[in-house]
Design a protein that fits this description.
about 550 residues, D-glucose:sodium symporter activity, Sodium/glucose cotransporter, mainly alpha
């Protein structure tokens, strides 16, 4: 349980974010009354690269990451850092190839883009999948992780605490729109990074530095915890080739084709801001390994050294064997390693992750329902009505997310559960976007059939994995399963494109790159801010980091 001072700090932070979100959202709305829908859903296309980069990071990093990445650091070392650092490569793809395309096409949503490139059927399917994934992946899982933390720290019922925080977040999100979301996300990113850095330094100094940690790992024969690229047959099920082949399938969908993430780019002021914002986020994505995962690794060595009491996490399983439920390791570190006052800052950081994830997802859901569903059937709808529908939708989505919590709580590892679901959703969407942007012959009929059959195939495989755990399919690691499903979808769409040849419209004829070099023709800003320079620097930096922690 945390002290009264820390409780006050946490409450003041939540109320402060609510006030800032409402103030910015209402102020921006009053200044821009002429185009209410664009202002509400896309911030009037006024976002600059720092806000885009920070908002992308905040929407990605939730309480799930703070809690579950520390858990993964405790259990398997820095292995799951692959999800953080590999993201830099897909953010480069977003900056170089996807962002300029989205800005050029002038779309409000990614389903809107699919209709322009393919047809309405593809748009409708992506809307359904995107809304469902936003509710499950971006909101419900974040609520679950946040509820576990708040229950541990405050001793209140998990569902009660999550409902309160969610309602507060929903208020400024529903009232203020994307402008309120991005402004609060920028603040929350800074708070989150500061808070995570504090716990990292606290664990580091408690251990006595890096070398004592390495000595403990060596003495317990756990040196592989410092390796990010594991060999074939590794018990984790994530050898280096699974990461190399499987992550791009997940990453391209998540960073380049998911409305909740890409909406920040769609609200960019111009193409340069839309390019540099994701690259800025790519640099920030270096931090999570050091401030989220390595603290969990320190917690493991501290526990092995007797410097961290984890008895509260221990229990006896049905076989009479002692097990450690590492889900609560992050909150345990907060309460044992930090003094009063700093605990309140860490709680604020955790709440930042929860609130930013919920706000971003709610805004994207309301945008898709407004533009892709409601306005399709009622094209004459006025902006005020569109905004009202978006607000109602956000409230309904919040209720659905809360109802899913008991089901998702069955996963041992929140992070692995999250990626397991993504691995079965992403392949057909990644395939359709990649071929749509880079291949002239990708036809509308092929996209529709690939989305339908590919999604059905993913759902069937997922069901088999959960119902029949001893089957050969169930033994395939989810990263490799994502790759296999992607290859199946790729072959499927290519075959269907030849069976049902493309018939381009005047609009779709312009919506694919004629060559891989075409999107690189734009000169961009001069100096270090040039998107090409930043891409090369980020690539080299990631190469060095992977070499060091190979």
């Amino acid at each position: 349980m945390i002290q009264f001072t820390d409780l006050i700090i946490s409450i003041c932070y939540v109320l402060g974010i609510l006030a800032v979100g409402l103030w910015y959202g209402i102020r921006h709305k009053r200044k821009n009354k002429d185009n209410a829908a664009s202002e509400y859903f896309l911030a009037g296309k006024t976002l600059k690269w720092p806000a885009i980069g920070l908002a992308l990071f905040a929407t990605n990093i939730s309480t799930v990451h703070l809690v579950s990445l520390a858990q993964s650091g405790f259990d398997s070392g820095i292995l799951n850092g692959n999800f953080e650092w590999m993201a830099a490569f897909t953010l480069i793809l977003l900056a170089l190839f996807f962002s300029p395309f989205y800005i050029k096409s002038g779309v409000a949503t990614l389903p809107d883009f699919l209709e322009k490139r393919y047809d309405r059927s593809s748009r409708d399917w992506l809307v359904i999948v995107s809304i469902v994934s936003a509710i499950i992946i971006h909101i419900a899982f974040s609520m679950l992780a946040g509820g576990i933390v708040l229950k541990t720290l405050f001793g209140v019922n998990m569902y009660t605490s999550v409902i309160v925080i969610s309602i507060i977040t929903a208020i400024y999100t529903i009232v203020g729109g994307l402008k309120a979301v991005v402004v609060t996300e920028s603040i929350q990113t800074v708070v989150l990074i500061i808070g995570a850095a504090i716990i990292s330094f606290a664990a580091y100094f408690k251990m006595g530095g890096w070398e004592p940690m390495v000595d403990v790992l060596h003495s317990t024969n756990q040196m592989d915890k410092l390796s990010m690229l594991r060999p074939h047959g590794d018990a984790s099920g994530m050898p280096w080739y699974a990461v190399l082949l499987g992550y791009p399938v997940l990453g391209i969908w998540y960073w380049c084709a998911d409305q909740t993430i890409v909406q920040r780019v769609l609200g960019a002021k111009d193409e340069n801001h839309a390019r540099v914002g994701p690259l800025f986020c790519g640099f920030i994505k270096i931090l999570p390994v050091f401030i989220f995962i390595i603290p969990g690794l320190f917690a493991y060595t501290l526990a092995q050294s007797g410097k961290l009491d984890i008895s509260a996490l221990k229990s006896i399983d049905e076989a009479g064997k002692e097990i450690v439920n590492s889900k609560g390791i992050y909150t345990l570190m907060i309460t044992q390693l930090l003094p009063t006052g700093l605990v309140g800052i860490l709680v604020a950081a955790l709440l930042s992750g929860l609130m930013s994830q919920i706000s971003g997802a709610l805004n994207s859901i309301s945008t898709m329902v407004g533009y892709d569903i409601y306005k399709r059937y009622r094209p004459e709808t006025k902006d005020e009505e569109l905004v009202r529908i978006g607000k109602i939708t956000a409230g309904i989505a919040l209720v659905f997310s809360l109802a899913l919590l008991p089901l998702l709580n069955r996963y041992e590892s929140i992070f692995n559960g999250l990626n397991d679901i993504i691995a079965h959703i992403a392949p057909p969407i990644t395939c359709v976007f990649l071929l749509g942007i880079f291949w002239k012959k990708a036809s509308a009929q092929s996209a529709k059939l690939t989305l339908w059959i590919g999604s059905a195939l993913g759902a069937i495989v997922f069901a088999i994995n959960k119902l029949f755990v001893d089957t050969t399919i169930a033994q395939i690691p989810f990263m490799m399963m994502a790759f296999y499903l992607f290859v199946a979808c790729l072959i499927m769409q290519i075959i269907f494109s030849y069976i049902y040849p493309v018939q381009h419209t005047e609009e779709s004829e312009k919506l694919y790159w004629k060559s891989i070099w075409e999107p690189l023709q734009s000169r961009g800003w001069s100096g270090i801010g040039n998107y090409k320079v930043l891409s090369v620097v980020l690539l080299l930096l990631m190469g060095v980091l992977f070499w060091i922690f190979r």
